[in-house]
Known about the structure:
- By secondary structure, the protein is an all-beta fold.
- It has strands at 3-7, 10-13, 18-25, 34-39, 46-51, 58-60, 68-73, 79-84, 93-100, 115-118, 122-127.
- A hairpin with a 6-residue loop joins β4 (34-39) and β5.
Amino acid sequence: QVQLVESGGGLVQAGDSLRLSCKASGHTFSWYAMGWFRQAPGKEREFVAAISWSGSSTHYADSVKGRFTISRDNVNNMAVYLQMNGLKPEDTAIYYCAAHRSPYTPVIGTSQGPFGSWGQGTQVTVSS
């Protein structure tokens, strides 16, 4: 499996943008679908976005659709990104990236179960 390190979080105002990065170690990064999840204070961790191993397929939670974009670089940086535009106070959470347990397997739905490797998380705080 891959080891993951997130970065890019911070304190911003409503309407601002942030770009989260998740860098992977290990030469097998490009084999795995990747996801972003988040956990707000007092709430369970929830799905945000996912991308296939090739980057050709993505899907999003309804709450972020049209505002967030997931992408990946399998060649140079071995990383997955989450571009977050139009941030809202309700986007405040710790954001985690995760790698699918199985290589070359698509992400179906929003469950955390298929994801086997997780980063340590990066805090995003959006003030109103």
